[in-house]
Amino acid sequence: MLRSLVGSEMCIRDSSKTYQAIVNTSLATYYKNDIGAFVYYNCTFHSDMMKGVTTFKTISIYCDHESGTVLRMVLVPADVTSTPLSTTNNNKAASSSSLFSNSITSAPSNTNITTTTTAGAGVLFITDADEISVIVTQIGAVYSHPHIHWWANGVKEVSQWSLHETSSRWVQFLNHLAYFQSLFFYHASFENNSKVLTSNLLEGMPAHSHIPEEVLKWSITHRMAAEARVQIRAHFEAVGTPIDDSELNSLLCATLYH
Questions:
Q1: Torsion of CA 167, 174, 136, 78, to 10 degrees
Q2: Fewest Cβ atoms nearer than 10 Å: which of 7, 8, 60, 80?
Q3: Which of 7-11, 76-80, 167-171, 230-234 has maximum average pLDDT?
Q4: Radius of gyration (Cα) for the chain, nearest Å?
Q5: Measured between alpha carbons, how far is 202 from 19 in angstroms, rounded to an integer?
Q6: CA–CA distance, 31 with 28 (Å, rounded to integer)
Q7: Which of 148, 125, 144, 160 is nearest to 249 (CA)?
């Protein structure tokens, strides 16, 4: 089911590959250099056994970039009064809670994360590798990857590419499959699915963000994309039809990122 939503960009089969699943996909573009974490703002998911919708103010993923591993995930519900973003990405272990068991914990005292919680709500600190993998898959499926489809929809404007019509048909097929057919398998309503996708698409994707070398060194996909940008731009300039950034992004989203 998630495969139909995410396309071929990301499919997590092994929790030990979570870090690679982040840095090699559009999830990596949400990296915040000032705190050394991947941060997803106003991330909306299906909830209550697919009968409802819930939004997290922030979901932050802290990693050890030297070893290429995920350390912890911090989820801040929408009704929490402040956002706990640490100023440095230290490697101290955080006490753990679970999104699926609904257990909520205060900020652990052995980290530099601070937060204020409201009555009946709090911040979730997750360190279980399997659970983080599942949540990362959800973020990719309904938050970051839909932007890849949005950009790929524009590839038909790149008329110089001989396969643009074929690509557009396949993208629309995947869009249709993700939006209509997948609902049958996980029993979500069209209304809730629209809320989730629309809300997340409106948040945007920082496609032009600067990803530091400490992250890029682990990402084959983004190194390929950097080289592809240079070669594609050079090709179109050589044939006398320079390509702009929007067309280039659409072309990459329709090809490499899928």
A1: 110
A2: 8
A3: 230-234
A4: 19
A5: 26
A6: 6
A7: 148
